[in-house]
Description:
88% helix
Amino acid sequence: xxxxxxxxxxxxxxxxxxxxxxxxxxxxxxxxxxxxxxxxxxxxxxxxxxxxxxxx
Length: 56
């Protein structure tokens, strides 16, 4: 996985987790956005893992 893509995936997952935590205290929109960000980060990471496996 390229370093920048790996970093982006990790940042999205952390940002999503933080939004979910803040949203848990009463802001449903942040909870939903956080879940979406976390899912997007996981998808990006999975995509990069597949690309790496195909190269080897």
